[in-house]
What we know:
Distance between the termini of chain A: 20 Å
Helix content of chain A: 40-55%
Mean pLDDT of chain A: 97
Oligomer: homodimer
Radius of gyration of chain A: 20 Å
Bound molecules: 3-isopropylmalic acid
Number of helices of chain A: 12
Number of strands of chain A: 14
Order of helices and strands of chain A: EHEHHEHEHEEEHEHEHEHEEHHEEH
Largest interface: A-B, 63 and 62 residues
Largest sheet of chain A: 10 strands, mixed
Low-confidence stretches of chain A: none
Amino acid sequence: KRSYKITLLPGDGIGPEVISVAKDILLPTGSLHGIKLEFQEKLLGGAALDATGVPLPDDTLSAAKQSDAVLLGAIGGYKWDKNEKHLKPETGLLQLREGLQVFANLRPATVFPQLVDASTLKREVAEGVDLMVVRELTGGIYFGKPRGFGTNENGEETGFNTEIYAAHEIDRIARVAFNIARKRGGKLCSVDKANVLEASMFWRKRVVALAQEYPDVELSHMYVDNAAMQLVRYPKQFDTIVTNNIFGDILSDEASMITGSIGMLPSVSLGDSGPGLFEPIHGSAPDIAGQDKANPFATVLSAAMLLKYGLGEVEAAERIERAVLETLNRGFRTADIYSDGTKLVGCKQLGEEILKSV
Amino acid sequence: KRSYKITLLPGDGIGPEVISVAKDILLPTGSLHGIKLEFQEKLLGGAALDATGVPLPDDTLSAAKQSDAVLLGAIGGYKWDKNEKHLKPETGLLQLREGLQVFANLRPATVFPQLVDASTLKREVAEGVDLMVVRELTGGIYFGKPRGFGTNENGEETGFNTEIYAAHEIDRIARVAFNIARKRGGKLCSVDKANVLEASMFWRKRVVALAQEYPDVELSHMYVDNAAMQLVRYPKQFDTIVTNNIFGDILSDEASMITGSIGMLPSVSLGDSGPGLFEPIHGSAPDIAGQDKANPFATVLSAAMLLKYGLGEVEAAERIERAVLETLNRGFRTADIYSDGTKLVGCKQLGEEILKSV
Ligand SMILES: CC(C)[C@H](C(=O)O)[C@@H](O)C(=O)O
Ligand SMILES: CC(C)[C@H](C(=O)O)[C@@H](O)C(=O)O
């Protein structure tokens, strides 16, 4: 029997509810495929702050590092919003990404045919959207130094950050993106602001140089402001997008909202080796936390991604993906994706319905 | 007779066509209101590069500085895309903004009732959208130093930029935004990434401190990734948005695309004193340049803004605004906003129709 260690990080808000559903689906699905999964739950974010005073306890990071894959719920909430930087839940997440060296963040934006009307975009614009944002996750302005607060030559206070990319950081994320584009529609769009920023000019230069190794992938370039427009105007033009940490943060959220069903979208963060980090794209939704209203689909699909990309257990992963589609087809919906004629259920019951379809 | 000097910067692509229409409308409209307008045309962008070797000739900057207002068409094109940074058309525009010290960029995103179906968003989502993005224009990562290309401690090549804001830069743009929000719906949303970036934490701190002086304005804060989503999900929630240079670049383009009629939207860039810079939001559209297909509405509305905000000639400005609406109501459209049952015309003829309505 193949056996794996999974670290679960429920986090804050609706995190614990959706993680609990995903766990209840992972276990029996694994058994059906001869996989033994061993779970350990650890603290991250606000939950960790409240219990230990830091957003990423050493114990959490070392458990995550020693496991085969990490499944995260969501972090953050109003309660900790005014904390100083090193005591923010978000800082724990950034430290985790850095600690695991998961530099490649894959964020699919797919419109489910059953949910196309949930998009605010016209049906003909939203229908069939299926794109992947490959976001650099451990570099750029999120981690660049120098950063902080200072005083300028006029004695005035300042706040500053550094957007910086080294050659290998660009090359490794570009390679991931070229490989993904190759397996998808064969089109890669690199998004930057090379008409203004040196960091972007350098980014573009490295991506262009690498393109020679991927002659079967059609590479294009787009400025980030234009990309933000094109996602609204005609999202179907995109297959795979690769971009830096901050532009990827913005564009992947925009792209996921275009699908209208952000509660459906998983994400994957991978490094060169070591465990991957799997999490829903949505946040901790503190306003509905603990009310059994959360949509667990995105976390369940993240669990499927964990099986596929994290453990190489493709069949078990596809069983979960099929179960999700079947549950959608059987009409079960949480409030965020409910529409006339479908069946409104809570987070827990939706989990049970998915399990029936496994 | 009141007399003003206007510098016209046609620029590249469709720039000359739309500027020529705007000029032909400004002159007679001015006369009707006892205003004498004196125009001088200068080179900027690719046109300036080709003629003089630099994207902003000294002569252009000093003419602009000595005039009462500057009207710009558009700059850039494939031809100069691979130029080195100091020889890019865009660099000329950035130097002009810096030279004129126009730190406040106002970008309205308004859905015209006549054009609501041009939006890719569902009618009920797009209808009635009327928001203003106030973008900081002469600071942040666009101008921050150090910037450039370097070598890191491992001997690896890097590209880098600095996002930096000093107190007075934040305060002055925030004041502009509070004042605009006050005259509009009384709601100001400051967009930042204060959960990650020190530059954003400092931004938020200054904006919060200033809010005391504007008790009648309802201030909120939103992370930039969430703002990119909310613009798609429910754009009507926004009244006035204030944000930094790069986030403003991205979000204002996204917001303008949401209206579906980017060919309709003007923009204004103002400093503390000195001439303002007025330009359409759209780019130089090199693919349709010289074909009499460009939509001149945005430049004509920029000319109206020039009269209103640049010269304080409110009545003349409103005459142009009314003429634009009347021309829309009379059914005249360029190709970008054409729909069944309306009258397709070229750039020049649309200008003549607007003039008839003046
Ligand atoms: C919570 C925050 C630090 C994080 C980010 O900006 O990366 C989030 O927005 C995300 O995209 O995962
Ligand atoms: C052309 C470019 C330098 C410019 C910018 O990024 O500011 C443009 O995108 C704009 O928004 O006016």
